[in-house]
Amino acid sequence: MVGGFCSGVVQLLSLASNRVSISEYIYYISYYLNWYSVLPIVLTGCVSAYLTILKCRFAQKRHKKCPWRVAVFSALTAGLVTVLFIWLGLSLPPGEMGDVGPEFYLMAFIWVTSFALAPALLVWWCYRRNLKDGEYMG
Predict the structure, then answer these.
(1) Are the CB atoms for 74 and 46 separated by under 8 Å?
(2) Are 45 and 112 in contact (CB under 8 A)?
(3) What is the per-residue pLDDT across 11-35, written as a single tens digit (0 to 9) for each?
(4) Cβ of 115: how many Cβ atoms within 10 Å?
(5) From CA 49, how far away is CA 46, in angstroms rounded?
(6) Which of 92, 86, 93, 97 is nearest to 4 (CA)?
């Protein structure tokens, strides 16, 4: 991920120095932004929201309140799943990309989990908002 992003930045800078069409330049920018920075964050947010929905619906069926810790646990789980997929993606191709240290995975986990916390808390808040006198409206 880091090497792909860095090579993408180098390629964008080399395109800027050459005379290329603006549409080709926009294509490269959108490609590298989508695949190397935005996509893992969006997917992690979706996973954390989905895990929170599952737990809140389970609590709703049992006529119980869903605690806020569910959102934090869902964000942590989504962050772990994302880091495992990043590790898998970096370890499969041959070369120097698989030689990323544990500091990279720790920082990726912290960043992705922090971004995944907002959708999980939003879903939890929507489920808690529907509470009325200890029971879910439905």
Answers:
(1) no
(2) no
(3) 544 554 556 666 665 666 666 555 5
(4) 19
(5) 5
(6) 97
